[in-house]
Structure formats: C-alpha cells, structure tokens
Amino acid sequence: MRLGLAGTGRIGTAHAETLKGFEEVGSVVVADVDPARAQSAAAKLGVESVSLDELFAAGLDGLVVTAATDAHPGLIIAAVDAGIPVFCEKPVAADIPGTLAVIDRIGASDVPVQIGFQRRFDAGYAAARAAVASGELGWLHTLRATTFDPAPPPAEYVAHSGGLFRDCGVHDFDIIRWVSGREVEEVYAIGSNRGEQFFVDAGDVDTAAATLTLDDGTLATVSMTRYNGAGYDVRLDVLGSVSGVVVGLDDRAPLRSVEPGVAPLPGPAYPGFMERFRAAYTTELRAFLDVVAGRAPSPCGAADALEAFYIAEACEVSRRERRPVKLAEVRR
C-alpha cells in the first residue's frame, strides 16, 4: 500500500512511524500546511514529503488525517471525492453543523471513512465490552469514567479546542456508548476553574463532571481535569448486578492506596495519552489497513463521531445553563 498522511505534528509523526512499520505498507508520503515541518518529519522518518496540494495526486491507496481540526472537513471530503479511503482523528469537524455537513456530503459515497477513537482498540475496553455483551456482569447499573490529564495544554490549544467536553470528554462519551451498547438520553454537567486564567478567557473549564442517563436507565458519570499531578489517569468502571470490571487499573495507574498493608503500584505513572494508548493506536491503524484493503468496513464512522459530539454538546449546554439537558434538544 501507498499511504498519505496530512498533518505532521506529534500524533501525525507517531502515526507515520507506525504506518511505515507495517509489512503491508510499501511507502508513506507526508504533507503539512507548514512544508518545512513536513520535510523535517519526512527526513527523520525516512519517508516522502509533498505539499498538501500535491498529496491527492501522489497515487494514494489511503489517507490518514492528523491535521488541525479546521482542516478535517476539507480533507475528508477531498479524499472521498478522490475515491481514497480516509482515517481522520476526531473530530470530523469543529461543531455539529460542520459535522452534519460532512456527513451529508459523503453520505452517498461508498468510500470508507474511519474516525479515530483509539479507546475502541484498547485491549481493556474491548474486554469490558465483551463482558457486557456476554451478560456475565448482569444488568448494568453504573459506569464511571475518568480522563485526568497531568498538566494543561498550551493556551493557544485551549482557545481552539472546543472546550473540555468536546475535546477531552468526547472520548469517554464514545466509549460509554461502545462498551454499554446503549445511547445517552440526558445529561447534567458542571465545571470549575482553579487553574490558569486562559481557560476562563476561552470560556472553558479545567475540571468537569457529568452524569449521563442511558436509554435503559443505567447511570454513567464522567470526570475530567487538566490538572492531575499524579499522572495521566484514564479508567472506566463497569458495574453490574452480578459482577463488575475496571479498565485502566494496571501497574502504571497513578493511584496510591492509603489502606494499611496495601502495596503501592510499581509505576511509573503514564505521562500522557500517547504512552497509555500506544498499543491501541497501532491496532487502530492496522484496522484501517483492513478498511483500505476492503477486508472490513469502517469500525468507527462519522455517524459514531456525531453521536459522541451530541453528548459533548449537551454537556456544554448543561454546564452553561446549569440544568439537565436531553440529547433531543441538541440533535439536528
């Protein structure tokens, strides 16, 4: 295969390195809105570099999009129009109208689009989903999700991130849907600011919590922060009438028990998402190769991304208006 990659930032460079390591991939060609950055990444990785304008004429079998969010819609549509299967990191677009516009534009095409929600490819989350589907947990009563970043991103990133629920919590919202097999009907969300002023300036919060009511009455809670000094902490508790499981409780979880006689976890804590989900990212991109080759349909399409975005949007409305919000209020 000959694969293209648009966007050579941190995650783009990591994805390019992963792609070139697959036996099925013969060549990788990268591009970026900043040509110098693309050339630098290409030299480091030993791959080709072209301009964004040249990318779609480079004989690609598939395209991986890791560019800035505002470039996602155009690149997805251009790839689909060119008949090139495309993998795009979340989100599809910066907002719901933009996401709907992309879905409407590509809806009649049979060119596959895969959106990057890497937790679906993590072994722990997959095992939790299997446990739910098998019935071994009984009926679910509670899911508890956490995404705790050890330190905030730069102010410039926060200003264009869409906010904590859309940027960070959307992963939890997607995985709650995926693991439980249920849809969210209503949310109630709150947030606070005790950190940097730039969160307030952006109309955002640095810490938040949301309660989700699923369509069968199951309750889910999602907790998020940009200031977890102990380390990167992403977990999901799935609790049922018969049994329960937890995702993310391993030797590197940044947790310290104060119960007498309980040994500390060996650590060290994960410093960030790239380290925590390195294997999941590899599995996700390998799945994309199956999509490109026509061996499998997209495992996470734009419609899935839209559903998670609806939940994030409802949480943001709830936080601002301090009231419960039904998903029906934000659907379009």
Could you write a compact summary of the structure shown?
This protein is α/β, with parallel strands linked by helices and 332 residues long.
Task: Write a structural description.
It is a single chain. The protein is 38% helix and 21% strand. With 332 residues, it is of the alpha/beta class. It folds into 2 domains: 2-111, Rossmann fold (3-Layer(aba) Sandwich); 121-271 and 307-329, Dihydrodipicolinate Reductase, domain 2 (2-Layer Sandwich), CATH 3.30.360. Strands 12-11-7-10-9-8-13 form a 7-stranded mixed β-sheet. Belongs to the Gfo/Idh/MocA family. GO terms for molecular function: nucleotide binding; oxidoreductase activity. Pfam families: GFO_IDH_MocA (PF01408), GFO_IDH_MocA_C3 (PF22725). Keywords: Oxidoreductase.
Secondary-structure map:
Blueprint lengths: L1 E5 L3 H11 L6 E5 L3 H11 L2 E2 L2 H4 L6 E4 L6 H10 L4 E4 L6 H11 L6 E4 L6 H12 L5 E9 L6 H5 L4 H17 L3 E9 L4 H5 L5 E8 L4 E7 L7 E8 L3 E4 L25 H4 L1 H15 L9 H20 L3 E2 L6
Parallel strand pairs: 1-2, 1-4, 2-3, 4-5, 5-6, 7-10
Antiparallel strand pairs: 7-11, 8-9, 8-13, 9-10, 11-12
Helix pairs in contact: 4-5, 5-12, 6-8, 8-12
* Beta-strand proportion: 15-25%
- The average pLDDT is 97
Biggest pleated-sheet summary: 7 strands, mixed
Task: Tally the helices.
Answer: 12
Structural class: alpha/beta
Rg estimate, integer Å: 20 Å
**Overall geometric form:** globular
CATH class of the largest domain: Alpha Beta
Contiguous uncertain segments of 5+ residues:
none
- How many distinct beta strands? 13
Helical amount among residues, as a percent range?
25-40%
**Strand order, sheet with most strands:** 12-11-7-10-9-8-13
* CATH topology title of the largest domain: Dihydrodipicolinate Reductase, domain 2
- SSE topology string: EHEHEHEHEHEHEHHEHEEEEHHHE
CATH homologous superfamily identity of the largest domain: Dihydrodipicolinate Reductase, domain 2
- For the record, the count of structural domains works out to 2
- Give the terminus-to-terminus CA distance: 38 Å
CATH A-level architecture of the largest domain: 2-Layer Sandwich
Family: Belongs to the Gfo/Idh/MocA family.
Domain GFO/IDH/MocA-like oxidoreductase: 125-241
Domain Gfo/Idh/MocA-like oxidoreductase N-terminal: 2-116
GO molecular function, one term: oxidoreductase activity
